[in-house]
Amino acid sequence: MAPEPRVSQAAVTARSLRKSYRDFVAVDGIEFDIQRGECFGFLGPNGAGKTTTMRMIYRAVPVSGGSLAVLGHEAGRPMADREIKRVVGVVPQEDNLDGELSVRENLEIFCRFYGLSKSEARARSSELLDFVNLSEKANAKVMELSGGMKRRALIARGLAGSPQLLVLDEPTTGLDPQARHNLWERLFALKRKQATLLLTTHYMDEAEQLCDRLVIMDKGKIVAQGKPRELIEREVTRHVVEVWHGEAAAPALPPEMQPLTRRSETLSDRLLLYVDDGEAAIAAAARHWPNLETRLRRSTLEDVFLKITGRKLDE
Amino acid sequence: MRLPRIGESESGMNLPGDINLSMALCVWRRNFTVYKHTWVTNILPNFFEPVLFLVGMGLGLGVYVGRNMQGQDYVAFIAPGLMASAAMNGASFEASWNMYIKMYFSKLYDAYLATPAQMQDIAFGELLWGTTRALIYGAGFLVVLLGFTLAERPILTSWWTLLVPLALALIGAIFSLMGQWYTTLINTIDLYSYYWTLFLTPMFLFSGIFFPVSDIPGGTTVAWFTPLFHGVELVRGLCQGPLELRHLGHTGYMLAVCALLLWAVPRRMRKRMVK
Ligand SMILES: Nc1ncnc2c1ncn2[C@@H]1O[C@H](COP(=O)(O)OP(=O)(O)OP(=O)(O)O)[C@@H](O)[C@H]1O
Ligand SMILES: [Mg+2]
């Protein structure tokens, strides 16, 4: 059999990708390339269009405009869509495990959708239960599981078809810290095996840890993209000085500190100074506000996120 | 994680309308698994209901009717029709409430749509399952009728009875498809009450199960348009004879309706769920 033609070596390529529901535009002309073997993140406030983008990638909703190629298949034609669906695994944001079946049966039924025989499905399900530490709950009904266990079952189910690309839509929401770190370990293990991971999360520390590259979406558009550290250095500064003033009125920025500070932000209980030279800035701040608590920290992705998407709740 | 080799992906068989049979069978298998867990609570009530009708109406009302039903016992007259309606009910339950729940409440179809399955495969799998369930209901009833017959109340008097399961499957398929069609039209689960009270119940009463449709003015004309009438006539013909040319007509009608719906309903389902 001749090797099938590849549209590109990228795992996912999107150009001017659009999705509208009637006259509401949920995804508004986004472009990105996800390389094979990388962990790629989608961040953004509620309603930004992350889930909609994921659903287009795993071919559960049609594309309204632009082009999308997944693992070498141009999305949209029926046969190509089936091929894509076969090699993409999905961990959805919403729990949609089958409540009438046990955990093991859930996995076995799913394995069958990927063409596994009865005995293969059984073996694969045991493997997967082991992988997410749920072997003890194999015969429990879904409703007997805790929230975190359900998420783990969903992750196991997403791996049923041995996917080349795994889409994880907020996989760690609702997990306790142990389970979260546990899952990170599992994701690293998958990455070592060359799986491509596509992740959305609202935890910035998670994105910083796991993602090789990421995009930030807002109102259906991509508003920033890059490697986490690059993004931080480009969008904000290397360091932040926090000046805690508590109940008192926010202090004004003294002239001597202005050259050190690229941008400042006033919150209800503290002043944030985005600075390049952390050492100099914290010394100056301590000198100027001897009675206030001053702190120096590294900038995080959260600072980037809040700068770009704003601090207010839109909806 | 085992990565599939290129070219390994076997696509299974695709029927016309881009329906993948192996995906459909996965949906069927899921329903069968659930059914195996719950058959005690599931089968038994559905077994009792038509039997109660048979005993209550057949033996009770039968005393007054005597042997005036085309020369038959009243029990024998209504039994084949009740069997057809049992198949209708079995399929209709699956295609209405059960399917609506999987579409919008448990989001099970969203889960399936993340696998290689497409919505038309899922609809077709549900149709296969609805037909199976119609067969289970009908077959249970058939066993009861066999009991009556052996106890010297002749109900099954023709060897053509052996073909009754085929007729039940056809009834199951039609009502699965009609139920699914209605399911694509509605926006709230409460609207099934209309489907039942304005469609299925009148059909149950006026399709020749309890009295010949020709007994009421215009009855025959109206009945000709309802699928249950053809099902009742076919099952009665197979159980009790004599089989005539018109039974071919009944079969042909049902096959034609089935084919038409089979062409239309899976794609409607897809339009409804994949937007
Ligand atoms: N089926 C639908 N019909 C109409 N509008 C929809 C549909 N699905 C999503 N939307 C709208 O599209 C927008 C993007 O939704 P989406 O679920 O992609 O957001 P998200 O970025 O995943 O948000 P969250 O972080 O809350 O999960 C929202 O405004 C949502 O209301
Ligand atoms: Mg989402």
Keywords:
heterodimer; A: 315 residues; Rossmann fold; 2 domains; 6-stranded mixed β-sheet; 4-stranded antiparallel β-sheet; 10 helices; 14 strands; B: mainly alpha; two-stranded antiparallel sheet; 9 helices; 2 strands; disordered N terminus; binds magnesium ion
What report would you give on this structure?
With 315 residues, chain A is α/β, with parallel strands linked by helices. In chain A, 34% of the residues lie in helices and 27% in strands. Chain A folds into two domains: 220 residues, Rossmann fold (3-Layer(aba) Sandwich), CATH 3.40.50.300; 62 residues. A six-stranded mixed β-sheet of chain A has the order 6-7-8-3-9-10, sandwiched between helices. In chain A, strands 2-1-4-5 form a four-stranded antiparallel β-sheet, with helices on one face. Chain A has a four-stranded antiparallel β-sheet with strand order 12-13-11-14, with helices on one face. In chain A, strand 9 and strand 10 form a beta hairpin. The longest helix of chain A has 16 residues. By secondary structure, chain B is mainly α. Chain B has one domain. Chain B has nine helices and two strands; from the N terminus they run ββααααααααα. Chain B is globular, with a radius of gyration of 20 Å. Chains A and B meet through helix 2 and helix 3 of A and helix 1 and helix 3 of B.
Brief rundown of the structure:
The complex is a heterodimer of chains A (315) and B (275). Helix content of chain A is 34%, strand content 27%.
Give the class-level CATH name of the largest domain in chain A: Alpha Beta
- Which molecules other than protein and nucleic acid are bound? adenosine-5'-triphosphate, magnesium ion
- Report low-confidence residues of chain B grouped into runs of 5 or more: 1-10
> Largest sheet of chain B at a glance?
2 strands, antiparallel
Average pLDDT of chain A: 92
Order of helices and strands of chain A: EEEHEEHEHHHEHEHEEHEEEHEH
Structural class of chain B: mainly alpha
Strand content of chain B: under 5%
Largest sheet of chain A: 6 strands, mixed
Estimated radius of gyration of chain B: 20 Å
Strand neighbour order, sheet with most strands of chain B: 1-2
Got a strand count of chain B?
2
Strand content of chain A: 25-35%
Instruction: Please tell me the CATH architecture of the largest domain in chain A by its name.
Output: 3-Layer(aba) Sandwich
Radius of gyration of chain A: 23 Å
Counting structural domains of chain B, the number is 1
The largest chain-to-chain contact, stated as pair and per-chain residue counts, equals: A-B, 44 and 35 residues
Strands of the widest sheet of chain A, in order across it, are: 6-7-8-3-9-10
Q: Name the helicity range of chain A.
A: 25-40%
Give the oligomer, counting copies of the same chain as homo and different chains as hetero. heterodimer
